[in-house]
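Field guide to reading this record: the first block holds the primary sequence, the second block holds the structure written as discrete tokens, and the final block holds curator observations. Each block starts with its own label. This record concerns Prolyl 4-hydroxylase subunit alpha-3, catalogued under organism Carassius auratus.

BLOCK 1 — SEQUENCE
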Amino acid sequence: MSPYVSLLILVYVVNISDKSFGEMFTSVMSVKQAVFAERQLIDYLRSYLENEMQRLDDIKRFFSRVTSLHSGIYHEPSATIANPIVAFKLVKRLKSEWMNVVHSNEAEENIDALREGYRRMEGSLPKLEDLQGAAQGLMRLQDVYDLRVEGLVRGHFQQITNGDPVDIYKPPVSDTLSGDDCFLVGKVAYDLEDYYHSVQWFEEAVRLFRGTEWSPENEGTLEDALDHLAFSHFKTGNISFALSVSQELLLHDPVNSRVHFNVKKYEKLLDESPPVKNQGLVLKRPDSTYLRTRNVYEKLCQTKGSQPKHFENPRLFCDFFTNGNPGLLLQPIKRELISLHPYLVLFHSFVTRAEAKSIREYAIPGLRRSVVASGVNQSTAEYRISKSAWLKESPHGVVGKVDRRITMVTGLNVQPPYAEYLQVVNYGIGGHYEPHFDHATSNSSPLYRLKTGNRVATFMIYLSSVEAGGYTAFIYANFSVPVVENGALFWWNLHRNGQGNVDTLHAGCPVIVGDKWGMIVVSPIISKATYIAFKLPISGFMSMARSSNIVVALILRNEESNSPFKA
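BLOCK 2 — STRUCTURE
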């Protein structure tokens, strides 16, 4: 699993570098920037249309002039052509004017100008991987939140409750999907041999394509959707539907020999193994081959799970916290103890809106596709869709102020080399980070190449709110925490004996609607030869608000010590 952590936030668009613009689907900020790219394309298209209308107006004027001549003075051509002036104009018009109209390059020049404008913008436009990533984002939301494809097509986020569709969120601004939109989502699933999703999306594409005329901007057609749907049904074992859809396709394409062959094949299969009457074939979502906690994870993304409630547990509380630090006496931090196992604290209003905005804008030029640990290396992964920026050796005043505030509330030194550099994260379309640990769980982790050690704690700041989704779910602890704008979560990743705390397995749930940004200060790094002496258990750390004279941790570097962290 990745040694990095997940976070959430809201972004404000500013100018960004070409590098941060790549892999657009992994960052909502990059998608927002695409709005401005399309506005430029609209300007190019407007110029093209204006030039084309001017060109056609000129042709219309020529047409009108010529037709008026033939309904006027040319009505009796023998008498008219006797006039040498009229005869000259006829010869000149046929030899020169008609040739200029027919062989004019103006149309080519206009379309070439439009294409050149598009070419200049191409570097700022989505690539094929962005279309695929955006489609997978929709399918991810469909799965994790159990959303109806029919609802998504109408711009609604709906689940089936007691047999009826129920909106889990009503966005103030939405749009509907066309047949071609659904076809492309289905095609992405189809190309991945994901026939569970391709069947559902191609069915919607077929429904929407029926009775409508093809548009030149569309990539798919009714025939394409029927063709792909038939094979998708076949791959899911629904031979009857595959046959029915193929027969409908032949009505539109009766000479298609391949479809005729498929029809005979499906008929033979049904003869050999007739379907059981009154027994419908239920489309079943494939089991996950790598995410054993999928069901729990998705349930926690939809609900808060069994999140502890303060009125049920007297050991959970809210208070104003100073940690005995003089810097917090006049403005203590609002602290909420969320959970005891794992020990999880939410600091409300940890940063101001102005500070959050400043950090976001400072991080934008450095945003790159987030990576995860893969053996001894790092790589991108479909289970983490976001962009990250590492604020290395930052001279930024706000970042330094937040660093000091973290130290005041935790007592931990968050300056390198005792902590990693600050990481700012922006999630993408359906952006998420599936269940993972922040601490390394393998000795081959890239974390150890830093010659430091494992991650002791995580401090995660929510730099924005989101409209729906985006919970932080703790899988084994069976609860999730909604995004609290400008708040911060804190937890220990390791037990005091240096072993990882399995209860900290957590995930960033997909964002349904919103722009998630966050900043992560992933645990002070402690070398394997570091000794940690606690005067109280780690689980008692947060009680120091009431006993400020208790020292939480004494961090000593001693390469010869008999530390429990030592290799």
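BLOCK 3 — OBSERVATIONS
The two ends are 21 Å apart (CA to CA).
DSSP finds 15 helices and 21 strands in the chain.
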